[in-house]
Amino acid sequence: MKKSFTDQLGRTILIDFPPRRIISLVPSQTELLAHLGLEEETIGITKFCVHPEQWFRSKARVGGTKQLDPDKIDALQPGLIIGNKEENDKEQIEALAAKYPVWLSDVKTLEDALEMIVQVGALANRTPEANRLAGQIRNRFEALQESLVGKRRRRVAYLIWRKPYYVVGSDTFIHDMLERAGLDNVFGQMNRYPEASLEQLAEARPEAILLSSEPYPFKEKHLEELRKACPITTLKFVDGQLFSWYGSRLLLSPDYFMKVRHGLAEAYNTL
Q: What would the 3-class secondary structure string for the chain be?
């Protein structure tokens, strides 16, 4: 049976429903497909789709999120490809869309993520499971907001890259997660992922600099120059997946955000 669906960019695709040969081009959406029970239907993933581990070891890999291998995709003959506006390359997506149904997400807020989960559930014939998951995530974030009432908000910078440094600005999913975690983004007046010098970091006067585990894997050896530039600022490593993955991993994010806040509070108490 042929059925049409509209993605988060307003594009309409026509697929054989329910889809039987799915390729996922985004790590967080791959994990979502696994959560929805689409083990048999999902035939291809990227080399960055590390969750679930069993899929990472056993599923065919079709390249990186921005460097896809069209020959490997053609060999799998997908009935549906699921990607993302930001994480995948526009030209590659357009080339694939000329041959296969390609459904794209566009996620900048929690509400966008919940909408994506529900829409992917409908797309993959898993509506009850997707609705249940979206409800669980919403409930956990609502509980997080209740727990933050009356709590002091901390001013933070969130780093995603080094040499040069790139920070998170507004109009991003991570920015929305910071806000929901009760953290004020000192670069929130800037758009997307601006470059920031050490001098700009110091001038922004964040109480804490959050060093993400991805896409750049910050380590202890990277702290010295930040300590010199911002000597009274707390430096904290954070799990980038729990701030930036917008699928089923969001179930874990609210509790993790509270742990981050507690860690920052302890750091301030020692100053």
A: CEEEEECCCCCEEEEECCCCCEEECCHHHHHHHHHCCCCCCEEEECCCCCCCHHHHHHCEECECCCCECHHHHHHHCCCEEEEECCCCCHHHHHHHHCCCCEEEECCCCHHHHHHHHHHHHHHCCCHHHHHHHHHHHHHHHHHHHHHCCCCCCEEEEEEEECCCCEECCECCHHHHHHHHCCEEECCCCCECCCECCHHHHHHHCCCEEEEECCCCCCCHHHHHHHHHHCCCCEEEEECHHHHHCCCHHHHCHHHHHHHHHHHHHHHHHCC
